[in-house]
Amino acid sequence: MQSRWDIGEPEPRTINKATEQLKSELLTLNMGPQHPATHGVLRIEIWTDSEVVAHAIPHLGYLHRCMEKHSENMDYRAVIPFVDRLDYLAAMNMEWNYVMAVEKMLGTEVPRRAELLRIMVAELQRIGSHLMAFGTYALDLGAFTPFLYAFDYREKILRLFEEVSGARLLYNYYWIGGLWNDWTDDQLDRVAHFCDEMEEEAKKYHELVSMNKIFVERTANVGVMSVQDCFDFGATGPVLRGAGFKWDLRKNKTYGLYNEFDFDIPIGTGEQGVPGDCWNRYIVRMKEVVESIKIIRQCLEKLEPGSVMAKVPKIIKLPKGEVYVRTECPRGELGMHLVAQEGEKSPYRLKVKSPCFTHVSMLPRVAPGQMIADFVASVGSIDIVLGEVDR
Amino acid sequence: MHKELVDLINSNIPEAKAVFNEATDPKADASITVEASSILKLASWLRTNDHMPFNVLQCISGVDYLEYMEVCYILAHFDLNTPRELILKVKLTDRVNPNLDSIVEVYPAADFQERECYDMFGVSFNNHPDHRRILCPDDWKGFPLRKDYVPAKDYNGMLVYPDNKMNFEDREFIVRQNMIKKAQEKASES
Lengths: 391, 190
Description:
CATH superfamily of chain A: Cytochrome-c3 Hydrogenase, chain B
CATH topology of chain A: Cytochrome-c3 Hydrogenase, chain B
Number of helices of chain B: 4
Radius of gyration of chain A: 22 Å
Shape of chain A: globular
Shape of chain B: elongated
Largest sheet of chain B: 5 strands, mixed
CATH class of the largest domain in chain B: Alpha Beta
Helix content of chain B: 25-40%
Strand content of chain A: 5-15%
Largest interface: A-B, 51 and 45 residues
Number of strands of chain A: 8
Number of domains of chain A: 1
CATH class of chain A: Mainly Alpha
Structural class of chain A: alpha+beta
CATH topology of the largest domain in chain B: Beta Polymerase, domain 2
Order of helices and strands of chain A: EEEHHHHHEEHHHHHHEEEHHHH
Largest sheet of chain A: 3 strands, antiparallel
CATH architecture of chain A: Orthogonal Bundle
Radius of gyration of chain B: 19 Å
Strand order of the largest sheet of chain A: 1-2-3
Order of helices and strands of chain B: HEEHEEEEHEEEH
Oligomer: heterodimer
């Protein structure tokens, strides 16, 4: 079968009379698998024509850990730690999706306090994940300072999570039927305090990076993904919103108790550059941090004492059938297709539709014609986590 | 929504022979099953029709049911007023060498998804522009997510799965062995 990358002889470029007679050919360059700008172990084969990228071919699978196969041999409860390790920067959001899929089949009513705490924790995790995206993106573009600021504040979130769940990165905190542990009043006060601090801090980030001349020059009008491109490739999350389409599952196909909350969906408006470029994707994330703070504050107001765990059978067995549950994660829409057989203790099949996997498939569309440095900016702006791409 | 869509499909593309699968349990999701040969025509109709379009392909997931292979296309419509989603199923009776038409020309998102389906289940897609494995290495043998998959003892001459390092009392090991036995029995019956 003919591969699509067989493009034949490249057209000779004529710069001036002296180089007209020279033969030109594409140079193959491997970006990764050990490359700081790929945020993990992604290898991108780039065909370059001098400094310009002609093709980019992503090669995945360096972090493939057979998570879908493993989960077919595990109890429904024992899958949760595996799900954690998908997107290790937003483990709470991953757990929530899986737990919701099982609860939907089981028909469990989750207590109100647990639902509210779940939203609060997920939004805290979203802030943490966006801070990481902000820091590493600036790092990709050569600015080291924002990374340190971002990690300082992400650390505060991790400290809180460590107190309630016992782990810093991979929590196993959302359980089927509720949460493992309740938050104390003292911890909730600290969340409120964190919100106040974070709001001030977010303004500082805008001054430091968002409107910085160098940053805008590097990102505005670079790596444009239009709304149509996003629909073609199934891109979601900040990539779709950055292109100017106001789509957020928390509002458009609401789950949990999100319908009780009042918040906006930020979209890329083209304040700098055009909607769909790297700068707009970046600014959507930064504005979402502020929206998340709003949601957390409303959560704290709504919280009432109560149980955080529903009654769930000791051995979970689901009825025959399948569900597809999707939620809005920091990187886009996560979907889980869970197929259950009657009387089985483990899932018959668990397919994870990961947002980053679809975003990586857009890179060959974006790359041609970009400079290599701009391509690095494009890869960074979709904020990939390879644990989720390779599963 | 599903029943309406089944009628629409059958009136527009009669060869699809769409069947509505009611959820076996009230809490589970319903789905639609169509004929495998019509998938490309159906996909382009689903994307472009005026009555009930689906503008995004979310994912393609395979399920090995031992007697047959099933490929699930999960489609969604991103619209601010009428969001919807659909599980579209295709039943492949040839479980050993399953074969389907590629829908990459309709939904470019299918590119990576079909490669993953091939990698994990061995479903080959006709006219796919870049038909390779995606997560496993190119020289990997077997299709890991099939129920009767037995991991090879060696890979490229390296012993990776030696007997003396195996924990035969591990629960995961026992469950997997039972599943492989079940799958092989079913295969020999048919």
